[in-house]
User: What shape does this take?
Amino acid sequence: MIIHNSGHKAYFNSRVAQLHGLNLDTPDSKGAKFGRDAAGELDGTAEETGAVFPLLSGAIDFAYYPRMLLAECARLNRAGLTTCSEMAFDPGFRPMVEQLRAQLTVRLRTYEISNPQMTTDSTLGQGDDMLRQVGIKIWVDGPPWIGNIDLSFPYLDTEASRIIGVPPGSCGCANYTAEQLHEIVGAYYPLGWPMACHVQGDAGVDTILDVYQEALKRHPRDDHRLRLEHVGAIRPDQLRSAADLGVAYSIFVDQINYWGDVIVDGLFGEERGTRWMPAGSAVATGMRISLHNDPLVTPEEPLRNISVAVTRTAPSGRVLGPQERLTVEQAIRVQTIDAAWRLFSDDVVGSLEVGKYADLVVLSADPRAVPPEQMADLNVRATYLAGRRVYGQ
Assistant: This one.
């Protein structure tokens, strides 16, 4: 079994299919699918979490997970992180994670994956300041790299788009219908659960904003902190609509650093590609955004996130959408206190204040005092969790 870099697609052989009982009659789960040939037989591909994640259970021995989780915490500490959200949490791992609670060196905030039954055994806010479930995660569409983001305009017909299998003229697709999304959000949101929704294409943004608006109309809530994740192709009018609803979004700005040129020249063109992940326009609406990494795609790089948000420099050296750049102070804020606010944790972390935990990082230089393009190269000298050093000398 091979996992696509995006985490949204997998390739598997007949042995994996046999182990999981997959065959001609296996139905697709809501929001996911198994690829099939012209005869309807499995072709060895799986798309989206409902199909990909179950296959993982046979790929990694569950006994290795405790060691892997603690190693991941150590890696995050080396990057200067003491709080991390898990945006695709499988509740089956909750007992194991809770057993490791005393050994964790990163505060975990989890968003449980919505399931076909649209139920959860968790209670709202379950946990403590080290480990807490804070929401439910859904996916409107997929990533740009496998051609299934929900767009109102077509992908470019280029070598890059053909390599990833995008048919000429394709506008991608959604994982769920609007009706299905209304049903999912309608099952969780009235119970008080905050929702986080992965969506990349602008057509998908229209759909989920309509769903959120209906949920807020039926069940008004002042502090709902409804989220959009990634939202590379979001339009200015959609940003204003989201801000009016109190919906904020988290930006995967690191995509510009790695694939900015491909996004413009290979997939979406100058007009739309240069505006990819529009941080400046989002902040201008007054919404509290955050920056994130998607660790299957890029490692957690908080300093690089800040640098890229300020420079928006692609691998070629060109700047994508200079009007979408943030100031250094804005970029630091959305990586720290605003990110903590998004996770319902700004009362305990995110800034150095009396009454909050002494979670802090010691850097080799003040990021405000170096050129923005050099911020990503600063060294993390030490990381502290509640005043206890968890990395460094």
